[in-house]
Specification:
This protein has about 170 residues and is mainly α. It contains eight helices and no strands. Helix 3 packs antiparallel against helix 4 and helix 3 packs across helix 6. The longest helix has 29 residues. It is flat and about 70 Å long. The N and C termini lie far apart (about 55 Å).
Length: about 170
């Protein structure tokens, strides 16, 4: 350990009067935006209304649209201080765009489920198609990125994989 590291450890162990900034990065020096279900859920409701109108011609009542917009903006305002603090940070911008893209894809998934329900497709069949498309998309992404195909044949892994597969599909 160098002298600075020894001093920091010594200050923690001996609990001398040391300012917090000596030991930790101040919160104002950390940029982060926590995107929770609240914001994603509010945005997804709004996107579902818009997509249902676009894909299925379902009319949107003005009061429902106003409520969805108000809810989305209200939840977004909760994150405004963090967004303003991180406005120049490309990684935060990238993360926010990924979160918005994922929320839009979730809304498109809801539209596919609506179409399947309207056509009378059984839930098990719809799940099978969804898992097949998801698997193909994941395999394509892994192939494009050059990710290795790996499988852990150990008993605990195989049992956990099978139990999660069964619980997530047929139960």
């Amino acid at each position: 350990l160098d002298a600075t590291e020894r001093e920091i450890i010594g200050n923690v162990i001996e609990t001398r009067d040391v300012s917090v900034s000596t030991l930790m990065t101040p919160r104002t020096g950390i940029f982060g935006v926590e995107v929770q279900e609240g914001l994603a859920g509010a945005a997804r409701i709004l996107l579902n209304l818009i997509n249902a109108r676009f894909f299925f011609g379902i009319p949107v009542e003005a009061r429902v649209l106003l409520a969805a917009v108000t809810g989305t903006l209200g939840v977004a305002l909760l994150f405004l201080p963090e967004l303003e603090a991180a406005m120049g940070d490309r990684t935060v911008t990238h993360g926010v765009l990924l979160a918005l893209g994922a929320t839009y894809l979730a809304s498109l998934g809801n539209m596919a489920a609506m179409r399947n329900t309207q056509s009378g497709m059984p839930v098990v069949t719809a799940n099978a198609y969804g898992m097949a498309y998801g698997t193909l998309g994941l395999a394509l992404t892994a192939f494009i990125r050059g990710a290795p195909v790996d499988f852990d044949p150990s008993w605990p892994y195989v049992v956990s994989l099978l139990s999660l597969s069964l619980a997530g599909t047929s139960l």
